[in-house]
Design brief:
18% strand; 7-stranded mixed beta sheet; alpha/beta; Diaminopimelate Epimerase, Chain A, domain 1; OB fold (Dihydrolipoamide Acetyltransferase, E2P); 19 helices; 560 residues
């Protein structure tokens, strides 16, 4: 939090434009200015952003291979083929798996099952170890969700056994190679789908949209088999999309916007159980990111992600509550292991702080938690980070990067050292043999040094400056119009002067101001404040609900 070296204040937009947009939309000039700076410069743009309509979703047939996918899945359903859904062990994969099962059952499928690989036994997605399990399940069709785009050899092996495959994924392909068969992925090089950033769950939803229309056109739906309302699945899409930290703009924002509405009005039993455990009354994107997703992710990180699918498919609140309690225990174990790992990783990282990248490895590292620890190190050092866990002679690594370095493209240039890898611009994973680890580390550092010279300086983009007197419930109401918040569409950050009255120390590590109409909270800032007393605070405005009382809360993001 204290790593930000430079605060960037916005340039004010044209006053005439602010006035032209503010009055008809009944927005404050402050909120209008934020929207203009984020690229929404017309009344139609802003109305579409503030109240996105499901009718604005892109046609699923704009995605390459969609007609083939519909034909293949339709034939499998009508012929009562055995369909196995292969999901990823993160929240995006868990939610996509649950959604696909619910839809196929509504289609009348009886011969379906799912398989979520265990990261410790099978690795990520469609691997050779996963293929062995799938062969034992005797499918006619393997349908992947949120994985499979790099599984060229594995798909070929399934085909050799007479098993058809339907890949749905959103990750980047391996060196532009796409597996044989039917592949839905907006990021395949020959796909012109306009929104490249949709989540894995979003890609799966596109398939369901096309399937529902196909069955409608051929009059498959009936009173005995009613047409499913895909809107009822948007809570799952919202959860998977927010958890995967994809940009919450365009289709992602639209789906999350309506999915959160579904959660607050017609929550399924799994969502109800999560909300009860976390004592949440009103669900928003922050609830999904920081309270619900960690519990579901913990299953895949520490145990078996199938538990998460069972929760989302639960038809009984009592059973859902039981599963949530077990997930909460697993998540507590995850937090303990994370603290232990981070201490070891920080010691190694400080010894490497002169480098442009940080690559840490230890037999004490847990591969299910490596990604979280990598993200913590990026926050602390603002460098690309790899955290490797040892698994015999194979090291399994999770990477997180900074905006100035595309981590997947960087790994493309190190592919000769890697057994397997994949990912995005900001995050990736790989497996490497012990004998090639040092060569990889040197090559990775050399590439980072070349790309990051001079070293980039972390910056914090602010949305304006406020005084305490300017902050009231009307301002909060206007800021809430920008929800759901997430990647790219972040909650606005404002600079405020430090209040004159002294702050309190909470639990020996947090700082807090209790002012007359609001509170200011700084998590884990007691020591940084003591070492470097601040003059100005960078804060996000939110609502704190506790024991039935609502209060305006300013959460400190940085200080100087």
């Amino acid at each position: 939090m204290t790593l930000y070296k430079t605060w960037r204040f916005p340039n004010p937009p044209e006053p005439d434009l602010v006035q032209q947009l503010s009055q008809p939309l009944k927005l404050s000039p402050l909120i209008t200015s934020i929207l203009i700076r984020r690229g929404y410069t017309t009344i139609n743009d802003i109305e579409s952003f503030l109240t996105p309509q499901l009718s604005e979703l892109n046609d699923p047939y704009l995605m390459r291979d969609m007609p083939k996918a519909v034909d293949l899945l339709k034939h499998s359903i009508l012929s009562n083929k055995r369909i196995i859904i292969l999901g990823d062990y993160d929240v995006d994969g868990i939610t996509a798996t649950a959604m696909m099962i619910l839809f196929l059952k509504r289609c009348g499928c009886q011969n379906i099952d799912f398989f979520i690989p265990n990261r410790f036994e099978h690795g990520y997605g469609l691997t050779q170890a996963s293929v062995e399990v799938l062969l034992g399940m005797k499918p006619d069709l393997v349908l992947t969700v949120d994985n499979g785009i790099t599984a060229t050899n594995e798909v070929q092996r399934l085909h050799e056994h007479g098993i058809e495959t339907l890949i749905t994924d959103h990750h980047l392909p391996y060196r532009d190679n796409v597996p044989a068969g039917v592949v839905l992925n907006p990021n395949r090089p020959d796909c012109d789908y306009p929104d490249k950033k949709i989540s894995g769950c979003g890609v799966a939803l596109k398939l369901l949209m096309a399937m529902r229309k196909e069955f409608r056109d051929c009059q498959y739906w009936s009173s005995q088999r009613p047409e499913p309302n895909l809107k009822s699945y948007l809570d799952l899409v919202a959860l998977g999309t927010v958890a995967d930290v994809v940009p919450l703009v365009n289709e992602n924002r639209l789906l999350v916007y309506h999915g959160i509405k579904m959660m607050n009005t017609q929550p399924r039993f799994g969502i109800q159980a999560l909300a009860q455990l976390k004592n949440v009354r009103t669900i928003n994107s922050q609830t999904l990111a920081f309270q619900f997703a960690p519990l579901l992710n913990a299953a895949g990180r520490m145990r078996n992600a199938s538990t998460g699918v069972e929760l989302l498919l639960s038809s009984d609140l009592h059973n859902a509550a039981r599963i949530v309690r077990s997930l909460d225990k697993v998540n507590s174990e995850r937090r303990t292991r994370e603290t232990q790992m981070l201490q070891i990783a920080l010691e190694q990282a400080y010894a490497l702080k002169h480098q442009r990248s940080l690559v840490v490895v230890s037999p004490e590292f847990h591969e299910g938690i490596s990604g979280i620890v990598a993200a913590r190190l990026v926050e602390h050092f603002y460098k690309p980070v790899f955290v490797f866990a040892m698994n015999g002679e194979l090291y399994k690594g999770s990477a997180r990067s900074i905006p100035e370095l595309h981590i997947k493209n960087t790994l493309d240039q190190c592919h000769e050292y890697l057994e397997k890898y994949g990912g995005h611009a900001a995050a990736a994973g790989c497996t490497i043999h012990q004998s090639r680890f040092e060569d990889f580390t040197r090559k990775f550092e050399a590439l980072c040094a070349q790309a990051l010279t001079p070293p980039p300086q972390p910056q914090l983009q602010l949305d304006g400056t406020l005084t305490i007197e300017m902050i009231d419930w009307e301002l909060i109401k206007q800021i809430e119009l920008l929800q759901p918040f997430g990647a790219v569409n972040s909650s606005p950050i404002f600079s405020i002067p430090v209040p004159r009255q002294s702050y309190q120390i909470v639990k020996s590590k947090h700082v807090k101001w209790n002012l007359r109409k609001l509170e200011i909270m700084g998590w884990n800032l007691a020591k940084p404040f003591y070492d470097n007393p601040p003059k100005d605070l960078a804060v996000q405005l939110s609502i704190n609900e506790f024991r039935g009382e609502r209060k305006i809360q300013l959460v400190i993001q940085a200080f100087q």
